[in-house]
Amino acid sequence: MADGSDSADAAETSARPTRWEIVALALLLLLGIVGIVAARRHAMWDYFEPGPGLFPLATALLVAGSAALAVGVAVRARLRASGAADEGAMPSSVEDRSRLLIYAGIAILWPLAFEPMGFLLSSALALLAAFRIGERMAWLPSLLFAAGSVLAGWLLFERMLGVPLPRGLLAGIIS
């Protein structure tokens, strides 16, 4: 009679991140580093207030730091000789891989859309995609969370801190 240890061993082995998942995380890390370099071209502070480079730098640092942590966890999980499941390891089911690709796509496309579409529109679409597609939330909570997050970010940076955010397609509407 089987005690189930064979299926547990198979589940632990399949929980290891694949090489492609590690490569995807490394590409996100590279994207974060490129963002840090690009953000450093702009002023961080202008006349005792945040400059136009502060928000992109903070975002790039967050992306790079998160990706570096995820790469470390994933590599550690792959290198474990025992094959035991690591609580911090990346899950490798097909559903979780597709979610990883969705978030990688958002992380790559959002900065590209930031200038031409503007902060409000590009951020709203990125968050809506993350909530609706990545997290599979219903439409109403997705719309409310995306709108609330974008509005809070815009009020904080544009109005309270005076950081000029790109207006993009809404340049004639927003003053």
Question: How would you characterize the overall build of this protein?
Answer:
The protein folds into 2 domains: 10-92; 93-175, no CATH class. Helices cover 68% and strands 2% of the residues. The chain has helices at 5-14, 19-39, 54-79, 94-117, 119-134, 139-160, and strands at residues 45-46, 49-50. Helix 2 packs antiparallel against helix 3, helix 2 packs parallel to helix 4 (94-117) and helix 4 (94-117) packs antiparallel against helix 5. It is globular, with a radius of gyration of 20 Å. Residues 7-13 have low confidence and may be disordered.
Fill in the keyword field for this structure.
2 domains; single chain; 2 strands; mainly alpha; 175 residues; 6 helices
Strand order of the largest sheet: 1-2
Helix/strand-derived category reads: mainly alpha
Determine the N-to-C terminus distance. 73 Å
Low-confidence stretches: 7-13
Largest sheet: 2 strands, antiparallel
Using only C-alpha atoms, the radius of gyration works out to 20 Å
The number of distinct structural domains comes to 2
Helix content: 55-70%
pLDDT average, as an integer? 77
The shape, in one word, is globular
Q: Proportion of β residues?
A: under 5%
Helix-strand pattern: HHEEHHHH
